[in-house]
């Protein structure tokens, strides 16, 4: 009996044609080749029937093979799929933060040629799948996440063994990937330790690196999470604030990130005066001078940013980043002008700024994933939308406006931005509003307030919260509200700080909030 032949393959990638197997024709790389750890040689022509779906940039992009050839790396189909995920998601996220598509193929090539990058990429992919594809399970290192910890440890060993031979970009990339791994683990302390290492690497070198902008962007984390910043290296002041225009949005982002670092140091230095001084105390001249310098720098930043928007240098696809940058500028404008004031009522003079933040957030709404807390989280290593809207929740005392911002967090934002877990901060923001306004925010109450046409009532200064602290660690508890809900609940202890300026008294309001474990 004659052997049954294979049907002739007329379409598909060159590799599948040679093997005479059916190709799934995924672009730009065939999934069948990736799953079997083969090199996909691409396509001999641009497809005529579906070519309109792909840009020339996609069709002409370098073909990156996902055969794991680095020393000591596994060549299993699981690792091949994980590397494909890194190329499709993580590399593009880094490239977006660095302001250009040219970084995506570079990162993928580094993941193929550098063992440390490869192991870190595989660890991120394995952890993301465990963390988000199985939200009802406990996230732990043992068991199903064994491959993640193995690759993480392997990446660390590679760095230790070959530290002197790695280039600056490779060291910074691996360090940044370690930060992302800790973002996924939810370990703020270790993530901040890696950020500090990256900044120290930058300061020890005489040359600049594009990857440095990511670490400047992450510098705010220790301030937000109450982790000591004394050992954190200081960042040099921006050099090009006198330019008539920024050259690109990445430059605008880096400058405002550096100004934010100075602003956070200013606010931290002023906390002793703001929270513990008598009503007739005077702020130090040094802090007042720094505040003025930052206000001038922000004004120059805005002029340069406005010139950039009017220029023809902006490429397509930047419409999302423009309102995000404006939101960040508005936040720091209000924060710098208010952080040395004894009275929280100073924020009431910036209603126009809060309104503008919400307008930008509304414009960005269609770009954000809908579905509230139950939507699948998006891997995002940057910040901007969530933190800006949350600033309105905390600092704006116009009840209707801050409830609008609170609702935006629930329905429009992704569930996690870097280390910011939106469910936790939504609960904190809601409780903060209840304390300051003396109300209980049920669903009906929020709807009634938002529909009301009564003039706004602002809480007195003595009833306003100056700051809060979420104590580290959380208590696990069962969800007693719904028997069919298998999610664990985490109970967090929060300390809200209040201050009576007239009587020079500081008090604490301690409460517990419960959120579902992601």
UniProtKB/TrEMBL annotation:
Pfam families in alphabetical order: Fungal_trans_2, Zn_clus
Key word Zinc present: yes
Name under which the protein is recorded: Zn(2)-C6 fungal-type domain-containing protein
GO molecular function: DNA binding; DNA-binding transcription factor activity, RNA polymerase II-specific; zinc ion binding
Organism encoding this protein: Talaromyces rugulosus (Penicillium rugulosum)
Lineage of the species this protein comes from: Eukaryota, Fungi, Dikarya, Ascomycota, Pezizomycotina
Keyword field contains Nucleus: yes
Occurrences of domain Zn(2)-C6 fungal-type (ranges): 12-40
Keyword field: DNA-binding, Metal-binding, Nucleus, Transcription, Transcription regulation, Zinc
Cited SMART domains: GAL4 (SM00066)
């Amino acid at each position: 009996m004659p052997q049954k032949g294979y049907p002739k393959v007329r379409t598909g990638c060159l590799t599948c044609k040679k093997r005479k197997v059916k190709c799934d024709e995924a672009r730009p790389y065939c999934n069948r080749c990736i799953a079997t750890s083969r090199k996909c040689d691409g396509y001999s022509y641009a497809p005529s029937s579906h070519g309109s779906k792909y840009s020339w940039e996609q069709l002409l992009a370098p073909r990156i093979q996902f055969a794991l050839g680095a020393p000591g790396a596994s060549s299993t189909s699981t690792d091949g799929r994980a590397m494909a995920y890194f190329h499709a998601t993580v590399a593009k996220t880094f490239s977006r933060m660095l302001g250009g598509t040219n970084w995506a193929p570079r990162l993928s090539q580094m993941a193929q040629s550098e063992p440390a990058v490869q192991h870190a990429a595989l660890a991120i992919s394995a952890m993301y799948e465990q963390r988000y594809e199985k939200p009802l399970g406990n996230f732990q290192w043992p068991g199903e996440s064994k491959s993640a910890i193995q690759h993480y440890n392997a990446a660390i060993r590679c760095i230790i063994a070959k530290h002197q031979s790695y280039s600056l970009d490779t060291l910074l990339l691996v360090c940044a990937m370690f930060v992302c791994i800790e973002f996924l683990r939810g370990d703020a302390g270790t993530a901040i330790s890696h950020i500090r290492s990256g900044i120290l690497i930058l300061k020890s070198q005489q040359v600049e690196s594009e990857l440095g902008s990511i670490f400047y962007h992450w510098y705010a984390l220790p301030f937000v999470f109450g982790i000591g910043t004394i050992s954190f290296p200081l960042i040099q002041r921006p050099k090009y604030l006198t330019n008539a225009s920024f050259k690109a949005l990445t430059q605008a982002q880096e400058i405002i990130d550096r100004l934010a670092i100075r602003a956070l140091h200013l606010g931290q230095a002023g906390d002793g005066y703001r929270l513990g001084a008598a009503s007739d105390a005077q702020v130090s001249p040094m802090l007042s001078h720094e505040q003025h310098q930052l206000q001038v720098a922000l004004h120059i930043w805005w002029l340069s940013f406005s010139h950039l928007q009017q220029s023809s240098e902006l490429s397509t696809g930047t419409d999302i980043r423009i309102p995000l940058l404006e939101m960040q500028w508005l936040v720091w404008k209000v924060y710098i002008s208010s952080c040395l004031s004894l009275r929280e009522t100073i924020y009431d003079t910036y209603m126009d700024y809060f309104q503008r933040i919400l307008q930008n957030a509304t414009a960005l709404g269609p770009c954000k994933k809908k579905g509230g807390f139950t939507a699948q989280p998006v891997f995002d290593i940057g910040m901007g939308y969530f933190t800006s809207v949350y600033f309105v929740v905390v600092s704006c005392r116009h009840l209707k406006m801050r409830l609008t911002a609170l609702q935006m967090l629930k329905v429009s934002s992704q569930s996690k931005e870097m280390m910011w877990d939106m469910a936790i901060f939504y609960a904190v923001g809601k409780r903060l509003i209840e304390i300051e306004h003396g109300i209980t925010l049920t669903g009906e109450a929020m709807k009634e307030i938002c529909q009301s046409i009564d003039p706004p009532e602002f809480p007195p200064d003595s009833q306003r919260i100056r700051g809060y602290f979420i104590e580290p660690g959380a208590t696990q508890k069962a969800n007693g509200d719904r028997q069919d809900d298998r999610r664990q609940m985490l109970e967090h202890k929060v300390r809200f700080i209040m201050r009576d300026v007239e009587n020079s008294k500081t008090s604490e309001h301690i409460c517990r909030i419960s959120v579902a474990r992601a």
